[in-house]
Amino acid sequence: MPTDFAATRAQFDLPEGILYLDGNSLGPLPRNVAARLARTVTQEWGTMLITGWNKAGWMDLPTRIGDRIARIIGAETGHVVLGDTLSIKVYQALASALEMTPTRKVILSDTGNFPSDLYMAEGLCRTLGDGYELRTVAPEDVADAIDDSVAVLMLTEVDYRTGRRHDMPALTAKAHAHGALAIWDLAHSAGATDVKVAAGGADFAVGCTYKYLNSGPGGPAFIYVAPRHAETVRPALSGWMGHEAPFAFDLSYRPGNGIERMRVGTPPILQLAALDAALDVWDGVEIADLRARSIELCEAFIAGVEARCPTLTLGSPRDPLQRGSQVSFRHPEGYAIMQALIARGVIGDFRAPDVLRFGFTPLYIALDEVNAAVEILAEIMASDAWDTPAFKTRAKVT
Amino acid sequence: MPTDFAATRAQFDLPEGILYLDGNSLGPLPRNVAARLARTVTQEWGTMLITGWNKAGWMDLPTRIGDRIARIIGAETGHVVLGDTLSIKVYQALASALEMTPTRKVILSDTGNFPSDLYMAEGLCRTLGDGYELRTVAPEDVADAIDDSVAVLMLTEVDYRTGRRHDMPALTAKAHAHGALAIWDLAHSAGATDVKVAAGGADFAVGCTYKYLNSGPGGPAFIYVAPRHAETVRPALSGWMGHEAPFAFDLSYRPGNGIERMRVGTPPILQLAALDAALDVWDGVEIADLRARSIELCEAFIAGVEARCPTLTLGSPRDPLQRGSQVSFRHPEGYAIMQALIARGVIGDFRAPDVLRFGFTPLYIALDEVNAAVEILAEIMASDAWDTPAFKTRAKVT
């Protein structure tokens, strides 16, 4: 049965008069989250108190939700766990991967990676000392830069600015052929594309949930470890929740079973409850349908903007197979144009120096909304409505 | 004006018929949290969407709340920030401290420390390699074990099992005299005792908020860095939120101003909102009053139990100045006794092998509740009510 996107749209509360094309920054509020949080707070925390850890199933939420996300990212059941932030999960994957490739010292990444991933790698290299190095090349040069010096290939599948999508299976295969491991950051893939971490051969994958998975501001991150590594990987962030027996209170660390060992501290139950509720929207969604609809929306937006706004330059790959679920256009006055759009109710975002980003998420964006956004953008460009001090003065950017 | 503990008690929702002496595991639900969360979800996330980061002040919550906690732990304003879990904050403090003492390789801790702190130190030593070592001694031997080989003294101020409180100023001074730094874990101190990190000389302090600060299950942790280190400390977990300009998206990391650099990833806004609301209870609380009342409650409990239950052995220091805000008693059948207590509505907890733990938090526990708990415990012990298979069979322990 094809996915019913009108039904998924009905599960979101979106403000009247808003065309929300920024789900790639922060997903909107699914309609059932408030009630679930109220229940978690009042009925679970309020009345069960400490016993909520067992009675309300809090302790197992990180792996139960992990299984729900596994389906969305094409992972094997039982190999994804939630917790921490994406930056921490990047660090965790990277530290473990480097320990598995002890004769090599190079982390290979690209300049299109999200900066926090690069910063975390930088910090880890400094802690490791001893010649460890983060090497970054342009995104299009990654394949050629994979050689036998590389310990770990660390990439974000979909570029946060351009939406350019790396070829996970091909790059991973090349990394493996050279004896390297591959870590994939799915921040802009999970819930946005037909990402397949198992088929793609990823050794580790990490991602956040507050974008296309709609878990709310600061929702927890996830980590995937390929089954072939699950019982041998050693966590560098060896917290008690990843211990084989957390409540034995042993003085020495023993890694827990499989993916459990990638847990660190006490899980954030309120954020996890919000995420768990948010994932209900996904129950009837086929990922192949999502991908097809996403491409349809993005193509319509590109065609419309290019036909109507000749001064905007496409900043995303033209081939839909090489894009995620966002489209970027470039303009030297991109900041002001985005402010003008926001003032008209079209919410995208701006990324320095000149990128206008628009995320298209079939769960709650339909074709007529894409057309309406094109119309408003075209009006703004035709009338130079962006060209006023009110829009050109930069506020603190998020 | 002395603190009005009847007024603080009125700000909590506690289930009828429950004597909750487990706030040292998970604090109960403050009455205003549900409304604050509902507002954050529905009015902020739901209607502001991505603009909530600025409009609703989400971006600054970690430092704004840090200032509220600073008062409770005797820290300077502007030097505490929230985020991550306590285990991550331990790692972060430890990695930074070791980088500041480059000629030394020993982390000194004690066997009474919370295991996760030891595990994180173990993991960091493995990542650092090169002779780094976690050395643990018995709590009473810590002072003598501080010598010129020690890089970092890492202690939890109040022992999670016995409630024994280390002398922070004396041990920190001795560490400094030997050229070492001191990291204090305040998990069982913050909101429980008159902890004074600035006066105590701590270089770093970390703690959790879901115990005595009542932020709910999995509430975020905090970290304090002494002002003298604030602008020189280098974060090992160098995430984008700790960058000098997170939204410049530079490819290289530059630490942010002062405590901001200890931020890592996107902050957990729902948990932070719950914490922020929970801290309202503290607005009228003088820490000296809290400490005095806490001692009064603990002393009454010890006197009552010792008078009525001769087979229970005090597992906490007898001198109140050497205790935090919890009292432990030991008994070989401690597990069953705790189950019998819970069945009667007295919620404490059990820690292997034989520890019954009772937390006394003046914010919502009064003297008549302490006396009622003593009475129930005495009845259970006098009647051997714990001696049934129903109580002796161990369930999964939290």
Can you characterise this structure?
- Chains A, B: Its cofactor is pyridoxal 5'-phosphate.
- 2 copies of one chain form a homodimer.
- The first copy, chain A, is α/β, with parallel strands linked by helices.
- Chain A has 2 domains: 5-31 and 286-392, Aspartate Aminotransferase, domain 1 (Alpha-Beta Complex); 34-283, Type I PLP-dependent aspartate aminotransferase-like (Major domain) (Aspartate Aminotransferase, domain 2).
- In chain A, 37% of the residues lie in helices and 14% in strands.
- The first copy, chain A, contains 14 helices and 15 strands.
- Chain A has helices at residues 5-9, 33-48, 52-55, 61-73, 86-100, 115-128, 142-145, 168-177, 197-200, 269-278, 287-308, 334-343, 367-383, 389-392, and strands at residues 12-13, 19-20, 29-30, 80-82, 106-110, 133-137, 150-156, 181-185, 204-207, 222-225, 313-314, 326-330, 346-347, 349-351, 355-359.
- Chain A has a 7-stranded mixed sheet with strand order 4-10-9-8-7-5-6, with helices on both faces. Chain A has a 4-stranded antiparallel sheet with strand order 11-12-15-14.
- In chain A, strand 8 (181-185), helix 9 (197-200) and strand 9 (204-207) form a beta-alpha-beta unit.
- In chain A, helix 2 runs antiparallel to helix 10, helix 5 packs across helix 6 (115-128) and helix 11 runs parallel beside helix 13.
- The longest helix of chain A is centred in the last third of the chain and has 22 residues, at 287-308.
- The two termini of chain A are 39 Å apart.
- The model of chain A has no long low-confidence stretch (mean pLDDT 96).
- The interface between A and B is large, with 92 and 92 residues.
